[in-house]
Input
Amino acid sequence: MGQRSWFAAGIGAAILGVAVASCGGSSRDAAASRDGSAGALAFSDSLPGAPLPPVELASRLAEAWRTRPAGYRPRTRHLRADGTPMYTNRLFLESSPYLKQHAHNPVNWYPWGDEAFETARRLHRPVLLSVGYSTCHWCHVMEEESFEDEEIARFLNQNYVAIKVDREERPDVDAVYMSAVQMLSGRGGWPMTVWLTPDRKPFFGGTYFPARDGDRGAGSGFLTILRQLREVYGQQPDRVAGAAAQITAGIQQMLAGSASSDSLPGVSAIEAALHAYATRFDPVNGGLQGAPKFPSSLPIRLLLRDYRRTGDAQTLAMARRTLDRMADGGIRDQVGGGFHRYSTDERWLVPHFEKMLYDNALLAMAYVEGFQATGDSSYARVARDIFRYLERDMTSPDGAFYSATDADSPGPDGRREEGRFFTWTPAEIEAAVGREGARLVRDHYGVTGAGNYEGRNILAVAADQPLSAQKRARLDALREALYAARARRPPPARDEKILASWNGLMISALARASLALGEPAYAARAARAADFVLGRMRRGDLLVRSIKDGQTSGPAFLDDYAFLIAGLIDLYEATGEPRWLREAIALDRVLARDFEDPAHGGYFLTGRSSETMLAREKPDNDGAEPSGNSVEAMNLLRLAELTTNDAYRVRAERAQRAFTKTIAASATALPELLLAVDFRLAVPREILIVVPHERAEAEPMLAKLRANYLPNRVITVAVEGADLARQTALVPLLEGKVAQGGRATAYVCERGVCELPTTDPAAFERQINPALARPGEGRKAIEARRAR
Output
């Protein structure tokens, strides 16, 4: 759930004079009786208040119904006696799982596109835009309360053109109209509900609206607001046009971003961000103070880099406290692995139970780096748990990764309940693992008869409990038994669309873990996903955003390219396969051609082939997902080090200058971009390892690399002969490098200048370990910080 506003007053109400007084309720229309069969859809009636569908549309819907997947169950309460849906709208023809959730609402939904706006213009109607995503709990609530309500649907169908958008497929649409909602209500979130003119300009908006006056304490419900705004639209068109023009101008100004700076962000930007995080840090529970608690709100990887650079124990303690408390809390699925979306309380105990691929990819990277920085094996176990969850629950038959699972699942009475799938009673635990096993589970996870969530138990480690190897093995076996028992429950819905961007993040996580943990199987899984995206989600040299059941969406966005490029670079470093680096370079050429701002640096969200929106956003904020600009800034720096092509460095610095003023205005706006700043300031190392026969011969050197936290580096492992020749064409620093004496030989370089080659792993470690190579560097940095 995003932040909720039950009604949007603010600017829109002031401009349009929308009243928020309550009005009398009205009864719901009874459903019309229909005939139908399980084999075909009948359109003897229309959707409530809507005309019969055109013959061509009715034919397409009937064919889609005839060829529906086996076991398809309409998601609606409006069913005939034989289980077929009473209503079907255009969304049944879409591939997005979120849009298909609304395919049997009585609302005459349109997908985003010209047809909807042309219809609104022809009928002289406003547009109602609803934006959400498949695992959004409050989107489901608004669907059940309003979009499944026949009275509300009738009013919508008679007075509006209604459009439904999946924000995960169309982040450009989401960005534009979320800006409007933030202007109008001072907050944002999903479901997002916006009123538009037929020329796509917003004139009012908010997030979640209760259906009727008085519901959930709201003065005016959704139906009342629909009526008020329809009346204003029809009777005061000049006021609507004025509001739309004013809001549109605000959107364009908001999304344009700040002007580029002549200066690059430096160490002071990192220090300012760290000071802001330290001021708001929760010393007991980790993360930032208060609730809800999002893992992304505290940038663990930035803290770890600061500790490496300065040796400051405070930043390490902040990172460790947060990693420890999240790992022990209910936000982590203690049975199945992986993490839920966020915690609704300050203790990381009660999560919002949806699971997102991108959250788990980013957390896996944080735990892998936590392991590297501290040597604490518990962090490696958490990362392995995430990958186990990914393998069991989120991997498609083709090796790509699904997007998310829902927070809600059916309870014993068939009604959907948030968290039901993930919570336990003592009796359920005992039935799964026996009396003795249940005692151990109860003690370790603090299970009680009263429970900690609506009479049931979210499993969370009860207290700091040192575990012997024997007890840990026993708990792991019990967790597997609980997982098997839980798998027999009705599961939450899974969003099986495959997004290029989120797959890119998980490819990165797996590839980095493969190198850091010495697990070639992780790189193999990353390679399989990369093959899928590059082979099935590309048209010419352009990526597409998503694919579901073989059906692709429209053009990809900045984050699709940036995240996938990062994943391919990571995969190259983990495997030494030059094709991954070639593909990364090819995708970057598309970014430079179609997305880069030639005037001011940085990258637009949309490319040249994307739909023209009211504004072209240049993303300048790292939120739950990092900005594509932040990730691409790092990509360019890494490509510069690998290829020695200075054009990449020039573009990276232009991208950073584009956001210098943004960082100065808000120190914590772009923590992911600060990783690129840290990389640039660190004088990164180029590590080249040449082996005589096969990559496995590099293992003694790679073991030393794993034992040292060295985030600001690039690495290449090449085998003498044809492989070395292929890689040298991409990584010129390999030129002339050989495996001396027939042994694996390491070359550690900075700015192309290499130290003496070594075949001795201990000597290699001294070259790469900053504490050994530059004694006192951290102490000097701490003293400089305190002096400021």
About this structure: The first strand starts at residue 109 and ends at 111. Residues 1-12, 19-40, 773-779 have pLDDT under 50 and may be disordered. The CA atoms of residues 342 and 352 lie 6 Å apart.
